[in-house]
Design brief:
The chain has about 325 residues and is of the alpha/beta class. The protein has 12 helices and 8 strands. The chain has an 8-stranded mixed β-sheet with strand order 2-1-8-7-3-6-4-5, sandwiched between helices. The radius of gyration is 20 Å and the shape is globular.
Length: about 325
């Protein structure tokens, strides 16, 4: 990490206005105003290390084929920023396609029915198995697209496929219904060594063995199935809508440092212009800072305050995690 912090001038980040005449000084004290709200998400251009407005960033990325926004799922500030970026990008490049991790490819028909006015929102949420926080997080994005008649892509891998691979390994795909198999990408487990290293480090384990011999290896394959499916769906959208710009919203692990979905998308089409917007969680919202290393996560980053802790009682947290795993086991693999 660099010791020289990159301050932001005055109240500019609250308005997301750049500091054109600011010159960094060695060991300059941070001057970022307190982030009293989790909705305050200043955007920093990684090329310059300076604040940039959402509108200026959208103009800079006007010619990008794909814009990927990484998020911490459920962070209100991230969802607000995504909605603002969607509108700003549309103003620059109206031929837009919205691609979403929170919808699985096998539920594209239900999503299309909703966009066509053939399903109400409650019906779509149930039939398409939308994420629990759809209304709070993704409704603005889908509504914006629906009102303008823009395509929305259900980008993620089917839940059954992901869970079965996570339990039993890649061979589980061979036992899926042929119609479900047909929705999966070629090379569903295409990988990147840097991503693999990050995944195993995050999981606190090591990759060895295969199939049922190593449950963590199976989980990595399930992760790859998600990433490869999303990359494939983005490419399909670009092919179906020539000249369009795809805005893809996904969890930050799938896009940070241009790994995950981004790396696999670039591997499939090296000529694609992909821009990545990545969150950086500040450690102290009262005296927030960021440094040069933080800017490596994407072509631009947005600062966000930490979310409130979910649990104080560790036993309740453990019970909740166990319940999640129990719920996941209810789905039987073929």
């Amino acid at each position: 990490m660099f010791h020289r912090l990159l301050p932001i001038c005055g109240l500019a980040p609250l308005l997301l206005v750049g500091c054109a005449n600011w010159t960094p000084e060695p060991d300059a004290p941070p001057s970022l105003p307190p982030m009293h709200s989790i909705l305050n998400t200043p955007v920093i251009d990684s090329d310059t290390g300076l604040p940039i407005t959402v509108e200026a960033l959208a103009a800079k990325w006007r010619d990008a084929d794909v814009v990927v926004i990484g998020e911490l799922h459920g962070h209100n500030g991230a969802h607000l920023l995504e909605a603002r970026m969607q509108a700003a990008l549309y103003a620059e490049h109206p031929d837009q396609v919205l691609s979403l991790e929170p919808f699985n490819v096998d539920h594209q028909p239900e999503l299309d029915q909703y966009l066509a006015g053939k399903l109400g929102e409650a019906e779509m949420v149930e039939d398409a198995e939308a994420w629990e926080n759809y209304r709070a997080g993704y409704r603005p994005l889908v509504t914006f697209a629906a009102e303008l008649g823009l395509p929305v892509v259900a980008a993620n891998a089917p839940t059954l496929a992901v869970r079965c691979v996570g339990r039993e390994g890649p061979a589980a795909l061979d036992r899926l219904d042929p119609d479900l198999q047909a929705l999966l990408p070629e090379q569903p487990f295409l990988s990147d060594p840097n991503y693999r290293e990050r995944f195993f480090a995050a999981m606190g384990g090591h990759g060895s063995g295969s199939g049922g011999d190593n449950p963590l290896e199976n989980r990595y394959k399930a992760q790859l199935l998600r990433d490869n499916t999303m990359a494939s769906r983005i490419l399909q959208a670009l092919k179906a809508h020539p000249g369009a710009q795809v805005l893809h919203v996904t969890g930050v692990f799938h896009s940070e440092d241009r790994l995950g979905t981004v790396a696999l998308l670039q591997a499939r089409d090296p000529d694609l212009k992909i821009r990545v917007l990545t969150p950086v969680t500040v450690s102290n919202p009262t005296h927030p800072t960021y440094d040069a290393d933080d800017l490596s996560g994407g072509d631009a980053v947005y600062l966000q305050a930490p979310l409130p802790p979910e649990y104080v009682d560790q036993s309740r947290m453990i019970d909740a995690i166990r319940q999640q795993f129990a719920d996941a086991r209810d789905m039987e693999c073929p």
